[in-house]
């Protein structure tokens, strides 16, 4: 079985193929009759150990639009609460013969671990601070549709890089497609290995946003913070929150992106989140299309290589 565990391992051709498939899925989703029969007879299980609004609902809608039977495992009311392990839970669901298992888990490597154990395709919907591949694909689709291409664009990824699986997957994908990636963050919110990630590190928004084509803001992930990574939310917004004055350093037609959920007034001002340069709602729409594309590629009997690792 083939899986999508991360952007690492995908070739530029694999990524472009998924984005092309997603463009076709956007067309299906914009029809009055949204349902196709591509995954008819297939069973998809969504197994989310962490909270989600966008990813879980878009995976559910994506499966339904492709005609699959979709089951959302409610972890909060499952036997996980009685101490059942991740592997035992997954093996139990595996015995019900799903074709695709979508997993979100707080531990890095959880999706890869399951992929070794179960007899179906596994899609990583976010594993700790490691990867969130469908988020990077939907971000790339949003950028490609707005700008026509990704190669050569200057993309500034700003904020809590340290705790962000979204940042990691986006850095891998954008570099694979030839964008120039900058990260903008205080030193307390940068991972130690950032120097090896082929990015330009900027300490101020002015430097990082200068002539940027895309400004990608990240949520301050306070639930993953154990110490004091920021002195105060007020100070964080002053230096790193996206407002009109900071956005003015980017190109006039720069896209403003945020994966959600947003902390308004912490990493982004409401007037910018809801402003004319924001493509945050487009990102959500592209999320359904990308998830349709990924599941369709994984289940495509004509494809034996590529598209997913
Ligand atoms: N962007 C994202 O993964 O959002 P959710 O946590 O709501 O799924």
UniProtKB/TrEMBL annotation:
Mitochondrion listed as a keyword: no
Keyword Transferase: yes
GO CC annotation: cytosol
Aspartate/ornithine carbamoyltransferase Asp/Orn-binding domain: residues covered: 152-297
EC number: 2.1.3.2
Top-rank EC class of the record's enzyme: transferase
Start and end residues of each Aspartate/ornithine carbamoyltransferase carbamoyl-P binding domain: 2-144
UniProt cross-references to Pfam families, sorted A to Z: OTCace, OTCace_N
GO MF terms held by the record: amino acid binding; aspartate carbamoyltransferase activity
PROSITE patterns, A to Z: CARBAMOYLTRANSFERASE
Binding site for carbamoyl phosphate: 54-55, 104, 132, 135, 260-261
Record's catalysed reaction(s): carbamoyl phosphate + L-aspartate = N-carbamoyl-L-aspartate + phosphate + H(+)
GO biological process, alphabetically ordered: 'de novo' pyrimidine nucleobase biosynthetic process; 'de novo' UMP biosynthetic process; amino acid metabolic process
Annotated residues for binding of L-aspartate: 82, 165, 219
Annotated metabolic or biological route of this protein: Pyrimidine metabolism; UMP biosynthesis via de novo pathway; (S)-dihydroorotate from bicarbonate: step 2/3
Domain of life: Bacteria
Keyword terms of this UniProt record: Pyrimidine biosynthesis, Transferase
InterPro entries, alphabetized: Asp/Orn_carbamoyltranf_P-bd, Asp/Orn_carbamoylTrfase, Asp/Orn_carbamoylTrfase_sf, Asp_carbamoyltransf, Asp_carbamoyltransf_Asp/Orn-bd
Assigned protein family: Belongs to the aspartate/ornithine carbamoyltransferase superfamily. ATCase family.
Subunit structure: Heterododecamer (2C3:3R2) of six catalytic PyrB chains organized as two trimers (C3), and six regulatory PyrI chains organized as three dimers (R2).
Function: Reversibly catalyzes the transfer of the carbamoyl group from carbamoyl phosphate (CP) to the N(epsilon) atom of ornithine (ORN) to produce L-citrulline. Catalyzes the condensation of carbamoyl phosphate and aspartate to form carbamoyl aspartate and inorganic phosphate, the committed step in the de novo pyrimidine nucleotide biosynthesis pathway.
Name of the featured protein: Aspartate carbamoyltransferase
Species this protein is from: Mesorhizobium denitrificans
Upper lineage: Bacteria, Pseudomonadati, Pseudomonadota, Alphaproteobacteria, Hyphomicrobiales
């Amino acid at each position: 079985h083939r899986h999508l565990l991360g952007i690492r391992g995908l070739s530029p051709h694999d990524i472009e193929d998924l984005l092309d498939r997603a463009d076709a899925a956007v067309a299906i989703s914009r029809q009055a009759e949204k349902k196709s029969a591509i995954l008819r007879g297939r069973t998809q299980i969504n197994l989310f150990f962490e909270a989600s609004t966008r990813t879980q609902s878009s995976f559910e809608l994506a499966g339904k639009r492709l005609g699959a039977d979709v089951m959302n495992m409610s972890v909060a009311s499952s036997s996980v609460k009685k101490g059942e392990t991740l592997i035992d839970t997954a093996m139990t669901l595996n015995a019900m013969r799903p074709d695709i298992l979508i997993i979100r888990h707080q531990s890095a490597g959880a999706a890869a671990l399951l992929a070794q154990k179960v007899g179906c395709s596994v899609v990583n919907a976010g594993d700790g601070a490691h990867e969130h591949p469908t988020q990077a694909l939907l971000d790339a689709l949003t950028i490609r549709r707005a700008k026509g291409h990704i190669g050569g664009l200057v993309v500034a990824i700003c904020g809590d890089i340290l705790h962000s699986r979204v940042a990691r997957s986006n850095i891998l994908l954008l570099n694979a497609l030839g964008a120039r990636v900058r990260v903008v963050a205080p030193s307390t919110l940068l991972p130690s290995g950032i120097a090896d990630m082929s990015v330009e590190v900027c300490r101020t928004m002015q430097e990082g946003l200068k002539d940027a084509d895309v400004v990608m803001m990240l949520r301050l992930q306070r639930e993953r913070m154990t110490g004091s990574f920021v002195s105060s939310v007020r100070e964080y917004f002053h230096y790193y929150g996206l407002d009109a004055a900071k956005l003015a350093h980017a190109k006039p037609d720069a896209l403003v992106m945020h994966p959600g959920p947003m902390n308004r007034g912490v990493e982004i001002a409401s007037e910018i989140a809801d402003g004319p340069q924001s493509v945050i709602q487009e990102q959500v729409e592209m999320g359904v299309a990308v998830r349709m594309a990924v599941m369709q590629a994984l289940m495509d009997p004509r494809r034996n290589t590529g598209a997913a690792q």
